[in-house]
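Reopening this one. Same input as before:
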Amino acid sequence: MTNPGGSGFTMTMKQAAIRDLKAHTVDVSIEAIRERIDQLGVGDPPVERYGLGDDQILVEIPGVTDLDRIKKIINSTAKLEIHEVVGTSYPTEAAAMAALGTLPPDEELLHGSATGNGADEVWVLKRASIVEGADFRDAQPSRDENGRPDMNFTLTTDAGKRFYKFTDAAKDTHTQMAIVLENKIKEVAAIQSAIQENGRITGGFTEDQAKDLSMMLRTGSLPASLDYTETRTVGSTLGEQSIHQGVFAAIAGMVVVMIFMLIYYRGAGINADLALLLNLVILLGFMGFSGATLTLPGIAGVILTIGMGVDSNVLIFERIREELRLGKTSAAAIQEGFAHAWVTIIDTHVTTIVSAAILFLFGTGPIKGFAVTLTIGLLANLFTAVFVSRTIFDYLLSKRERTAPISI
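Same output, byte for byte:
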């Protein structure tokens, strides 16, 4: 629609388009925040929409000691741009405008302390950037020849070609370029040779600043700035209590299952209990070797593994009982029992491992932990329930006559 004064236009968006834009902005922000937190080495914290308000995001981060740094990393738009410098610097905007008269529409004034003396200066830059945030494919903290922190970056292929074309032409005209971070000039550098995809940014960074900046460039800039509605720090007591209760539940369940196997299967129950204990040792040994953390979903995977292990032994022992009822000898019954139960055990374990693989591929951090624990437990169970149990039975049969009865 046209303004009443006839000097311009007022554009409005449809409500549906506004809702879609807001939803997209929140979704992109969630992914960017999650990637930034993952770069910090924090184990898969939940980052999700908060249902109590519009456009709110809930972030839960365990083990945080520097809350201010985390806030800065999460909330920073971290938009890094490289612009062509026009002319020289000025002490103030007024001095720049006095010298220039009028500012062309394709140029802009930006502040920064880029000459090394720490003083704020005003530079005239081309308004359009040569490369910017989305053009950076990778960024890593490093150190220069004097051991000072800086940052190496890698551009995408298209941005590298564009940057090479600019720097190749600029090196002959002594054109300078400005490194701009969040509308502040961090560095102004002379172009001495053509640069394509790889470059380095210096500018008096501290080690943490270089790490944080490179991390934020790798994870992409936020589509909008964030405002903190509430910050709450929770102690570790609740989490420790939940872990202790989960471990107690796993141990109590295993003890009850072992007692049941001893009562119901008598001597063969000892066989099943030994296999079950070895299964748990293998699982916990793998977790210790890989440095995995025992979380609540991981404990759930351990408990389910115990149940699957008992189920395998029940299938084998019941089949052996059936063979004994048919009048077969103990040795023949054991051989037939393992042979016939093997197919069913493989079927149940493979289908469960496939389900765990799907959970690992498409699930979030806690779900992935459950899937890994369950998979390792199932593989260990295939070994203990079939090979170990069979070896124990064969050892017992070797100590007695093959026609002697077995306790099962």
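So the earlier flakiness isn't reproducible anymore. For the record, The first strand starts at residue 47 and ends at 49.
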